[in-house]
What we know:
The structure holds two protein chains of two kinds.
Chain A: H1 2-16, H2 21-48, H3 55-65, H4 78-99, H5 107-119, H6 123-151, H7 157-166, H8 169-194, H9 201-232
Helix pairs in contact in A: 2-4, 2-8, 2-9, 4-6, 6-8, 7-8, 7-9, 8-9
Chain B: E1 6-13, E2 24-31, H1 38-48, E3 68-71, E4 74-77, E5 90-94, E6 101-103, E7 106-107, H2 109-120, H3 142-151, H4 159-162, H5 165-169, H6 175-187, H7 195-202, H8 216-220, H9 227-239
Parallel strand pairs in B: 1-5
Antiparallel strand pairs in B: 1-2, 3-4, 3-5, 6-7
Amino acid sequence: MIMNSKSxxxxxxxxxxxxxxxxxxADKIQSATGIMLGxxxxxxxxxxxxxxxxxxxxYHVVQFLEGGLFTSSGHGMPIVTKVFSIFIMLVVIVxxxxxxxxxxxxxxxxxxxxxxxxxxxxKDSHAWFWQLVTGFILFFLAPVHIFTMITNPEIGPHLSAxxxxxxxxxLLYALLLPAVVIHAMIGLYRVALxxxxxxxxxxLRKVAKILIIYLISIGVxxxxxxxxxxxxxxxxxxxxxP
Amino acid sequence: MSQGRTLTFNIFRxxxxxxxxxPKMVKYQLEEAPGMTVFIALNMLRxxxxxxxxxxxxxxxxxxxxxxxxxxxxxxxxxxxxxxxYPKGEITxxxxxxxxxxxDLSVNTGKFMRELAERLKLWLHxxxxxIDIHRIEAPMAPEEAxxxxxxxxxxxxxxxVSACATKQMRDTFVGAVGMMKIARFELDSRDARSVEDxxxxxxxQDGVFGCMTLLGCQDNCPKDLPHMQQIAYLxxxxxxxxx
Lengths: 242, 243
């Protein structure tokens, strides 16, 4: 009996001491999908904020991104948004799956984290805590937004304003915007240091802080623009054409 | 230098050996002296006010790594912390979290470091053909020796372990000290272990792929070791190991 348990134990230790290539893969996938999503967010917020330059500017951005150059009518094709949204959804799912490794899923881990935050003053650890909180929030908010873009991919100065004002999406966006911006910018900052892409941490931190304020600002302003446009629209709306 | 002001120390007191003792914060007051460090203050407190106060020290010069503790929320060495750094004159001292508590401010970092060294095999593994005591050792390039020496400056004080939220959440995580030592042998041309061998030791959630780059190690290390660069180097090395 003793012999048996001993040999089992040594077998177990031997097995556990071997590394799995998936440890490296999971880490690389998390970083790669994170960079993809972070860069996409930077572009996305600028595209949708083109409404601040007027309805016409936004119309042309959508027209260009939806392949209006290749249609006979000259309008964009919402199917492009639909397909791209499905792709983004898949990237989000993969990112969430590997990022789950980081969650303090057990109560003991959560309490250890809180105790550490109370006892030790350290800004980057606190920043990660907010990334954790916003990441958790995004589990629920991001899919709602992406699903809407898959089922109703129509975008335009009036179509988007209808969604924001008449379909009450403003509430979702008001919550989603700060969560996703904070999560993504702290994430991009960390991923650059994590793989040693830069050693200029101070500069990077400053850039991340500025980007958080800047992106939330343009996001809020464009959200307000859509609310103002939406309030002036009567249902059923007619899509904007310059 | 604000000479002669009264310093107030709030010190964590708890003796696990004493039945019925409960953790508590105890307040002490002491007149500040020129050039006083927290380490000097603690010795004065023990000598003049409370001989039962437990804390560790050996070298009083930032070399032995024994007197690490959490001072006003920052894990660091007491012997290298001047009391004049605190304009309010209030100093709160806590033992390093994440280690077995011996009593008051004294923690068993030695036990942790020994277990870590055994688990990660933190010693030189010479090449088989070099185990010949009659042969003259091959000289090491000065650049390589300097690189190794830089990483060998670690005093095993335990600050990086206490400053790491990842380590606090995941007890089996090797922490910056473990990775620093692995990197030291990885860089050593005399060590026979391959990248794959190191991968089997730290290529997992308890090693480089468990590190979340919170950088508590980098920001608190009293020896200013390049943890951020070193862990990133190891991560890149390990990420390319088993592909």
